[in-house]
């Protein structure tokens, strides 16, 4: 990690509320060459700005959902053979549960559904969501 520490852009990162990542000895980690190219990630690497991460976190900005229509769907039984489905939908369900708990605690109305299956579009719930969008737009 000597390369990152020696890079002047990395000095004082912890004091600025940013995180230092990257290990030049680990080919799967962000290294100095990626750092010099701007990181190539949404939030930047090897440094990222916590304010930018927080701005995209719906739990941290729950009040921005007040007076908006919120419709959530997550599967409760991802396909155990499909690794993507298992990893993804398990996290989607956990995130939805956390978010709707936060919405509920803030008194923000929302519609949520937990249904059998994994990560795929459910035509009946898509239609229900679309009908809700149209109904809300008709009021305007």
Form type: globular
Oligomer: single chain
Mean pLDDT: 78
> Helix segment count?
5
* Radius of gyration using CA atoms only: 20 Å
Strand content: 5-15%
Question: Strand arrangement, largest sheet?
Answer: 1-2
Order of helices and strands: HHHEHEH
Number of β-strand runs? 2
Q: What's the quick description here?
A:
Helices cover 40% and strands 7% of the residues. The chain is mainly alpha-helical. 9% of the residues are buried.
Please explain how this structure is put together:
The protein is built from five helices and two strands; from the N terminus they run H-H-H-E-H-E-H. The protein has 140 residues and is mainly alpha-helical. The termini are far apart. 9% of the residues are buried. The model is unreliable at 1-20 (pLDDT under 50).
Question: Which features would summarize this protein structure in a list?
Answer:
140 residues, mainly alpha
Topology diagram in text:
Blueprint: H1 2-6, H2 32-36, H3 50-55, E1 71-75, H4 83-105, E2 111-115, H5 123-139
Parallel strand pairs: 1-2
